[in-house]
Structures are given as C-alpha cells and as structure tokens.
Amino acid sequence: MFAPATASIFTRTLAAAGAAAVLFSASVQASPVKTVETANGRIVRSVEVPFVDLDLASAEGVAALESRLKVASQQVCGVTERVPLQQHMDHQACIAETMASSKRAIVTLVARAEAGDRFKAGERIAVGS
C-alpha cells in the first residue's frame, strides 16, 4: 500500500536533486560576468568558461561545451521577460552575437583537440558581447 506513495516521493526527490545538481554545475562552470568599457566608449560584458575537463574530440564533450556556452551567453545578456520590443530585440542580438563567437571558438577548440593538442590547466574561453 505504501510502495506507490514511497516511489512517487523518491522520484520527486530524485528529480529535485538532479535539477539542483544541474543548476549548481551550471553556476560553477562559468566565472562572474566582467564588464569593461572600451576606448571608444562601448560597454563589453564577458564570462570565461572552462573546457579543459571535456573531451572535445567526442560529440558528448562538444555538447557539454555548447551547453556551458549557452548558460554563459545568458549570464552575459541576461534574461528577458515581458519587456518592450526594443529591449527584446537587443537581447536577441546579444544572444546571437555571443553564440556566434562561441561557435567560432568551438570550431577552433575541436580542431585543436582532434590534432592532439593538449590544453593547459585552467584554460578558458571568453564569451562576450
């Protein structure tokens, strides 16, 4: 009689623990957002993302890096909810810009990994807009 109820509680607890682990993992993967003003007055925000723990010669490693970079682009650009159209468009442009630079970095890193290049401990990629 108690088995189905216990199984339901166990499943919900396991799901909550998994979600917490994903959030914790995502929050510790990228460093804090850095904001810098360039000489021409442009504000640039960036986040450094670690990757040396991933096997970038495998599809799983590349997928994990892409996931980290998506989280980092959201850190850089922020999250929008019910904002005026111009702010929404600016947000979308920021995401597109950071993801485009991320994709270029992935191509370079995968090529290095496939060539047998060893990454340095602590090496990171910067994602920014």
Can you describe what's shown?
This protein is α+β, with helices and mostly antiparallel strands and 129 residues long. 59% of the residues lie in helices and 13% in strands. It contains 3 helices and 3 strands. It has a 3-stranded antiparallel β-sheet with strand order 1-2-3. β1 and β2 form a beta hairpin. The longest helix has 30 residues. 17% of the residues are buried. About 18% of the residues have low confidence.
What's the rounded overall pLDDT mean?
79
The tally of helices reads 3
Stretches where pLDDT is under 50 for at least 5 consecutive residues are: 6-28
Helix content: 55-70%
Order of strands in the sheet with most strands: 1-2-3
Number of beta strands: 3
Shape: elongated
In whole angstroms, the N-to-C terminal distance is 57 Å
Helix and strand composition category: alpha+beta
Q: Which series of helices and strands comes N to C? A: HEEHHE
Task: Characterize the main sheet.
Answer: 3 strands, antiparallel
Q: Strand percentage, roughly?
A: 5-15%
Rg estimate, integer Å: 19 Å
